Amino acid sequence: MKKAIRLAITMGDPSGIGPEIIVKAAIKMREEVAAGRVEILVLGSATALAKARVQLGITEEALPLNMIDVGPVEGEIVTGAISAVGGEWAYRAVKRAVEMVQANEADTIVTAPLSKEALQMAGHHFEGHTELLAHLTGMRDAVMMLAHDNMRVSHVTTHCAIADVPKRITPVRLRRVIDVTLEALECLGFDKPRLGVAALNPHSGEGGILGKEDDEIIAPIIKEYIDKGFDVTGPVPGDTVFIKLRAQQFDAVVAMFHDQGHIPVKLLGFNVDPATGKWQAISGVNVTLGLPILRTSVDHGTAFDIAGKGIANADSLVDAAEYAVKLLEGRRKKGI
User: Fold this and answer.
1) 3-class DSSP assignment, residue 4
2) What's the rounded Cα separation, in Å, for the pair 172 and 257?
3) Within-domain flag for 284
4) How far is the CA of 269 from the CAs of 145, 188, 315, in angstroms?
């Protein structure tokens, strides 16, 4: 019998929807737990989790998880409020999860959302989960991939000003993103992955008229991979590359900057009620590649505005957990 995959699920900011979606996700995953495929380890505030569980009418015995409290943290957790207290809880949960994976006490990390503002207020000056995890693992070249169904998008740059993007698109960084993306696709079961690389400039620079980066930096790197026998295409204009991805001409796309990659994935991942204009559910996963540990995450924020109301949707967290299991099983098969 295969050993259960131990998922270290971090609560994120306990003032947000993290506690609620963890309870809901655990209930949805109870058959996986009962079958011995996964073990759920939750890191964060035990008090916040208990509060969410009671509010949802779930008994402690019915919740298939093990709670690991990372406190104490001085100060009160106020539902729906951005604070240094919430930021500190979120930081400690991630730090403890990394330590557990490094000590072989857990196999992979799945993160509920944290607030970048709260993290900064607590004195932890990171732009988000990806940068925090890179710091905690001693790696500086992590790669963010978003996934929704057959839409898989890795990013060369993420949380930086648009004005800084061109100088961050270097041959070294491009090779790194392409390498870890191809590896992830292989772990997901693609024997010969097809990768599309988005252009930075409109119309791939129009021969240098609209920018020289595509011809001078991106295209030569793509040629290197083609010459080595990889199925890599580009630079493909940003206004068509995702259409081709959705049409399954590629298995994944490498985007040059945050919004270029995030917008198409989130547009498909948010289920909006046309009658009310309100979103009903979110589907999508954020995967951190290129680290010595595997981490997946929800593809949404803390949603402080609906925290504590019992209406948060846990689909993205369930998706993230299932994606982590699939990637980890693929890595084990490949001996990674």
Assistant:
1) coil
2) 16
3) no
4) 14, 20, 11
pLDDT tens figures, 103-156: 999 999 999 999 999 999 999 999 888 889 989 999 888 899 999 889 999 999
Is the domain of 237 the same as that of 311? no
Q: Residues 35, 135: one domain?
A: yes
> 283 lies in a domain?
no
Torsion of CA 146, 44, 91, 316, to 10 degrees: 10
- Domain with 299, as residue range(s), is 1-142+291-336
Alpha helices in 84-202 (DSSP H): 84-102, 116-121, 129-137, 165-168, 171-187
Report the 10 Å Cβ neighbour count for 272.
Answer: 12
Q: Tell whether 272 is covered by a domain.
A: yes
- In sequence order, the 6+-apart residues with CB closer than 8 A to the CB of 225 are 178, 195, 232
The CATH number of the domain holding residue 266 is 3.40.718.10
Number of domains, the chain: 2
- What contacts 47, CB < 8 A, 6 or more positions away? 77
d(CA 253, CA 35): 35
If asked whether residues 137 and 225 sit together in one domain, one would say: no
Q: Note the pLDDT tens digit of each residue in 176-206.
A: 999 999 999 999 999 999 999 999 999 999 9
C-alpha span between 245 and 265 (Å, rounded):
11
